[in-house]
Amino acid sequence: MSTNAKFTVPGLNEKEADAAVQALDGRMVALIDLALTLKHIHWNVVGPNFIGVHEMLDPQVEAVNGMVDNLAERIATLGGVPVGTPGSIAERRNWSDYSIGKGLVTEHLGALDLVYSGVNEGHRDAIAKAAKVDPVSEDMLIAQLADLELFQWFVRAHLESSDGKLATVGASTEEEAAKKAANQ
């Protein structure tokens, strides 16, 4: 995939634009994957509190899809080429597919907490990279991170005990987080 800018916005040189495009592209891939994962959970969550979680996820999917569109359009604005084809997304990601199939609300939310942690950490890394070259891309990523952290809080509210302990603390895999959450 070629993301080298042949032109860019006034005030950025091609090297700076390419660095911003690279940071944005990684987040675009992560958010496409997140939107699909959220929809997968929406379809496969069962058990107590099913309807609340089922209905909580669709607005998150919609918001994340909007973030993807904004990133793709910023990439194009900078002279890059946003590529969102399924094969390309699979080739460019460096993580495994979401690992929980049909599962209880707590299991999915435990695993989703880990997913959001990874996505949000990646956004923070991209913010740091964008800050060096393009404040507009940096601001876009900061605004997205605020929403993504809010969504993670929605998930964590289901996993938190009354004394403030998070059920997924210490989990390093989705399966482990799901198990810990189910045993809370």
Summarize the structure in words.
With 184 residues, the protein is an all-alpha fold. The chain has a single domain (14-182), classed as Ferritin, core subunit, four-helix bundle (Ferritin, Up-down Bundle), CATH 1.20.1260. The protein is 68% helix and 2% strand. It is built from 6 helices and 2 strands, in the order αβααβααα. Helix 1 (14-44) packs antiparallel against helix 2, helix 1 runs antiparallel to helix 4 (105-131) and helix 2 (50-77) packs antiparallel against helix 5. The longest helix has 31 residues, at 14-44. The mean pLDDT is 93.
Which keywords apply here?
single chain, 184 residues, mainly alpha, Ferritin, two-stranded parallel ribbon, elongated, DNA binding, DNA-binding, Ferritin_DPS_dom
Strand-helix topology:
Blueprint: H1 14-44, E1 45-46, H2 50-77, H3 86-92, E2 103-104, H4 105-131, H5 135-157, H6 174-182
Parallel strand pairs: 1-2
Keywords: DNA-binding
GO molecular function: DNA binding; ferric iron binding; oxidoreductase activity, acting on metal ions
Family: Belongs to the Dps family.
**In total, how many domains does the architecture comprise?**
1
| CATH T-level fold name | Ferritin
Sheet with most strands: strand arrangement: 1-2
Total count of strands: 2
Sheet with the most strands?
2 strands, parallel
Give the CA-based shape.
elongated
